[in-house]
Amino acid sequence: MQTLRIGLAQINTAVGDIDGNVAKILAFAADAAATKCDVVAFPELAITGYPPEDLLLRGSFITANRAALERVVASAPAGITLVVGFVDGDGELYNAAAVVRDGTLAGVYRKQLLPNYGVFDERRYFAPGTAAPVFEVAGAAVGVNVCEDIWERGGPTEEQAATGASVVLNINGSPYRMGKRLDRERMLAARATENGVAVCYVNMVGGQDELVFDGGSTVIDTNGAVIARAAQFEEELLVCEIAVGDAAATGGSAADEQPASAPRIAEPLSEEAEVYAALVTGTRDYVRKVGFRSVLVGLSGGIDSSLVAAIAVDALGAENVRGVSMPSRFSSEGSMNDAARLAENLGIELLLTPIEPAHAAFLEMLEPAFAGTAPGTAEENVQARIRGNILMSLSNKFGWIVLTTGNKSEYATGYCTLYGDMVGGFAVIKDVPKTLAYRLAEHRNAVAGRELIPRDVIEKPPSAELRDDQLDSDSLPPYEELDPVLESYVEQERSLEEIVALGYDEAMVRRVMQLVDASEYKRRQSPPGVKITPRAFGRDRRLPIANGFRG
Question: Are 413 and 516 in contact (CB under 8 A)?
C-alpha cells in the first residue's frame, strides 16, 4: 500500500506583508522537505494574509501577490509539492490555491463556495470557481479545495472524490469562536465518511484586527476519526503519513523529537483555556502588527481591568505593560490596594495619578451650566472622561497604546462612557460577557497556581465607583441573569416572547432589549476587540444606528 506523507503548515501570516509571508512559506516548505514530506499545504490566502479586504481592490496589491507566487515557484525546494493560497485572476479575482512542484506551477484550484455571512464578505471581492481538479502527488490522487468548499455536503469535495481523489487537502482561514473546534471536526468527519476520503485540514493561526485564527489543523481518516491534530494558537508543521486507499495513517509534529510515525494528536484546550489563548493571541498580534511595542491599562481594582492586564502581560511581557491607577473621591481603599497588588503580582509598573484636582475643577467649571439640577450620570461620567484624558495623554507622550477594559455585557447595554472608559486603541475583552470574565480570571489563577488576580477582585460586588456605595446591580440586572438574555437577543436573535418563554421576567427582558437597541451609536465608536463569541458587535452584528424598528 502506497504511503503519502503530508505536511500541514499552520502559520501566522500578516495581511499585506507579502514579503514576510513568502519568507515564512519558504522556511516551512524547507522544513517539510527536510522531513521527507511529499506535499505541504499552507493556509488560505497565505501569500496576501487573510482577510485582505479592500486591498483586493488595488491593482498593485494583486500584481505584488502574483509576483510573490512566482518567487515561491522559483524558490520552493525540489521533490515536494506545495499547496499555497493566493489571489488568482486579472479582472475577475479568485480566492485560489496554487499547486507548485519542482519549479513549475502545476495547477490552480479556485474556491467555489464564497461565504457572505458573519465576518465574511467574499462575494464583494471574488468570483466563484467552477472546476474541481484532482492533482497527482507522489502517485496519489489528491483533491485540493478552499475553506468553505468543504463545509457544505456535496460540492467540490464530492466531485473530487467521485473523480478518484483518495485524499482531500482543504486550506483555511477559519476564524475562532467558542465551540468551533468541535463543530469543525464533526463537519470534517462527515465529509470524510460521506466521500470515502481522508481529509487534511490546515488552518492559519494568529490575530488580524478583530479576528483570531486558532490553527488546530487536523487529519481525519475515512472512518471519521481524528488521526492527527496540531496545537491551537501556535505555529506548527503537522506531519502525517496516509496509506493511500485505506484509513491507516500515522502522524507526528516536525517539532517533536519522537519518530515521525508516532501519533501526534494535540489535546484540545478547555473552553476557558481556549478563550484565554484567543485573547492573548489577538492582543499580541494586534499590538505588534499595528506597530506598537508597549501598552497602557487603567487599573481600577475591578475584575475587568485586572483580567485585561493579565492578558496583556501574557501577550507582550511585563516589561511592555504599564498600569495607571486614577482614584477619585469615590474610590475605595480596597480597590486601590487591589490595583497595587495586581501590579505587583504581574510585575508591571504602576503609575498613580489621582484625579481629584481635575474632578473638582471640572465640577466648578460646570456649576453655572448645571445650576438647579440634581447631580446624576453627567457628574459621574466627568470622572470617566478625566481618566480617558489621562490615558490618552500618557499614550501620546510615550507611544503606548491604550487597552480598554469594557466587557460585552457593558458594551451591549451601554453601561460604559463615551470618551471615558471606552477610550483606547484596542478593546481586549469587548466580546467577553461579564460572567465569562470571572471564569477567565479563575482560570488564569489556576494556571499560575496562586492568586495572580487577587481574590478580593474576584469576590467583591462589581462597581464603577463613580458615586458613594454604587453597584452595577443598581443599573443592571445581576450578570447571571443579564448575560443569558443578552446571548438570546444579540447572538441568537430571539424575540421578546421567545426569551420570556425561557423563564425570564418580561419587564427585565424588555428593558435589556431597549438598552441594547439604544446603545448602537456608542458601540459604533468603540475600538476593535477580539472576537470570541458566535456574534460579536461590529463585524458580525451590523445594525443601523438610526433605527426605528423595535421588534
Answer: yes
460 catalytic? Reply is no
- Give tens-digit pLDDT for 59-84: 999 999 999 999 999 999 999 999 99
What φ, ψ does residue 483 adopt, rounded to 5°?
Answer: -65, -40
Q: Is the Cα dihedral 69, 74, 80, 81 positive or negative?
A: positive
Q: Is 434 a catalytic residue?
A: no
Higher pLDDT, 290 or 331: 290
Contact present, 9 and 49 (Cβ < 8 Å): no
The question of whether 111 is a catalytic residue gets the answer yes
Kindly name the residue from 44, 122, 272, 274 that is annotated as catalytic: 44
Query: Of 147, 200, 240, 416, which residue is the catalytic one?
Result: 147
pLDDT band at 255 (very low <50, low <70, confident <90, very high): very low
Candidate from 19-23, 117-121, 223-227, 385-389 with smallest mean pLDDT: 117-121
Q: Are 328 and 426 in contact (CB under 8 A)?
A: no
Q: Give the pLDDT confidence score for residue 263 in this predicted structure.
A: 55
Quick one: 362 exposed, middle or buried, by C-beta within 10 A (0-12, 13-18, 19+)?
Answer: middle
Cβ contact 548:222 at 8 Å: no
How far the first Cα of the chain sits from its last, in Å, is 62
**Identified catalytic residue from 24, 37, 111, 236:** 111
107: buried, middle or exposed (CB in 10 Å: 19+, 13-18, 0-12)?
middle
The domains located in the chain, with CATH, are 3-268 (3.60.110.10), 274-471 (3.40.50.620)
User: What distance in Å separates the CA atoms of residue 138 and residue 273, rounded to the nearest whole number?
Assistant: 39
Q: What is the rounded CA–CA span in Å between residue 387 and residue 395?
A: 12
Conformation bin of residue 160: beta by default, left when phi > 0, alpha when psi is -120 to 50: alpha
Q: Is 160 helix (H, G, I), strand (E, B) or coil?
A: helix
Whether residue 246 is predicted with pLDDT greater than 50 in this model: the reply is: no
User: What is the 3-state secondary structure of 209-251?
Assistant: CCEEEEECCEEECCCCCEEEECCECCCEEEEEEEECCCCCEEE
Q: The pTM is what?
A: 0.93
- pLDDT above 60 (res 249): no
Given CA atoms 471, 473, 479, 483 in this order, what sign does their dihedral have? Answer: negative
The count of other CB atoms within 10 Å of the CB of residue 251 is 24
Residue 264: exposed, middle, or buried by beta-carbon count in 10 A (0-12, 13-18, 19+)? buried
Q: What Rg do the C-alpha atoms of the chain give, in angstroms?
A: 26
Q: How far apart are CA 340 and CA 458, in angstroms?
A: 15
Amino acid identity, residue 374? A
The mean-pLDDT minimum among 52-61, 117-126, 163-172, 373-382 falls in: 117-126
- Cβ–Cβ under 8 Å, residues 205 and 10: yes
